Amino acid sequence: MDTTAWQLPEISHGWVTDGGLETDLIFHRGIDLPDFAAFPLLEDRSGRSELESYYRDYARVAAKADAGLILETPTWRANADWGARLGYGADELRRVNSEAITWMRSVARDLTDVADVLVAGVIGPRGDGYRPSDQAVDEATEYHRVQLASFAEAGADFVTAYTLSTLAEAVGIVRAAADVNIPVAVSFTVETNGHLPDGSTLSEVINSLDNATGSAAAHVLVNCAHPDHIAPGIDADAGWTRRIAGLRVNASHMSHAELDEASSLDEGEIDGLAADLRSLAAALPALRIVGGCCGTDVRHVAAMWDKWSPVH
Q1: What percent of the chain shows pLDDT beyond 90?
Q2: Is the CATH number 3.20.20.330 carried by domain 3-305?
Q3: Is residue 123 a contact partner of residue 97, using CB atoms and an 8 Å limit?
Q4: Rounded distance between C-alpha atoms, residue 65 and residue 259, angstroms
C-alpha cells in the first residue's frame, strides 16, 4: 500500500464519527474507567455489549444523514505507558489492539443501513494530551510503532492519532505509520486561544508536519476543544486549512485546565454547540469528518448533523 497516496474516500455527505466515548461511559453509563481507558471493556461480553450499544447510536445518525460512518476503536490509552499502569504488558497490548479491529469489523458488518463504514484504529499521546511532552521525533517513532503495527496487521482501514500537543510526536507517529505501511491521520488539540498547549499555532504545526513528512499524513483534524477555541487559530484564506478534514469538538467552553479540575460533566448547550460547529465548518473547505469529544454524546452529534452536511 502506498500510504502517502491514501485519501479518505469521497462520499456525498461526509463522515460521521462518534462523541466523547470516555465521558459518556463514565457519566451516563456509570462505568468506571481507570486512567480514562476504555479499551479494557473489550475483554468481556458485558463491556463489548456496552461499546456496541454506544457505536450503534452513531450508526443511526449516519444512516439518517445519508453519510458514511467511521468506527474508531476505544484504544486511545492502549499504548505501553498507560497500558502498564493498567497491568497490560506488550503481548497483551498487541492482542487487545488487534482484537479491537477484528471486533469493530464484526460490528460494521451488521450496519447495513449506513452508506459506507470505515474501521479506524485510534492512538493517543504517550502522555497527557493537555500537557506537551518533550519526546524527540525518533523516540515518538519508536514508541508508537508497536501499536500502529498491531492495527496494520489486523487490517484497519487507517489510523487516527488524537489529542496531540506537539509537532515532534505527530511527526514521529506519521513516520512510524509509514514504517508499518498503514495510512494515518493526526489530530491536534488547542487551548482557548486556538494555539496548541506548547504555544504553537495550527498553521505552524500543519505546515511543519507536511514539510517534515512529505505530506504523508492522510489528513489533519482538531479535537478536544470547543469550536470557539479552535476558531481563533483558523485562517479561512490560508492554503493549510485545506489539510483539516475533521473536527471532534468538546461540549464545554472550559479550558483544559478547568476540565481537569471539574468534578461533574459539562454537557454545554446542544443546539448552541451545533451552531458553533457549523459556523467553524464554513471556514474549512476540506472538512469531511464531524464528531464530538469530551462532554458530548449522540445527542450533540445528531444535532450537528441534523439537516446539514460538512461537505460544501
Answers
A1: 92
A2: yes
A3: no
A4: 31
Bigger pLDDT: 129 or 156? Answer: 156
Q: What is the pLDDT of residues 223-276, one digit of tens each?
A: 999 999 999 999 999 999 999 999 999 999 999 888 888 888 999 999 999 999
* b/e per residue 234-259 (b: at least 16 CB within 10 A): beeeeebbebbbbbbbbbbbbbbeeb
Grid coordinates representing 240?
493549510
Q: Which amino acid is at 107?
A: V
Q: Is the pLDDT of residue 300 over 90?
A: yes
> Where is the binding site, in residues?
224, 293-294
Alpha carbon distance 100, 205 (integer Å): 30
3-state secondary structure string across 42-54:
HHCHHHHHHHHHH
Q: For all residues of the chain together, what is the average pLDDT? A: 96
- Identify the helix (H) or strand (E) that includes residue 223: strand 220-223
Residue 10 exposure: Cα atoms within 13 Å on the Cβ side: 3
List, as own/partner pairs, every contact residues 54-57 make where C-beta atoms lie below 8 angstroms and the sequence separation is at least 24, other chains included.
Answer: 54/18, 54/21, 54/24, 54/25, 54/29, 55/18, 55/104, 55/107, 56/107, 56/111, 57/298
Structural domain boundaries of the chain?
Answer: 3-305
* pLDDT of res. 259: 87
∠ CA 206-212-216, rounded to 5°: 75
Given this model, what pLDDT does residue 80 score?
A: 98
Number of helical H runs and strand E runs in the chain: 11, 8
Residues within the annotated binding site for Zn(2+)? 224, 293-294
Contacts of 6 (CB under 8 A, 6+ apart): 158, 183, 218
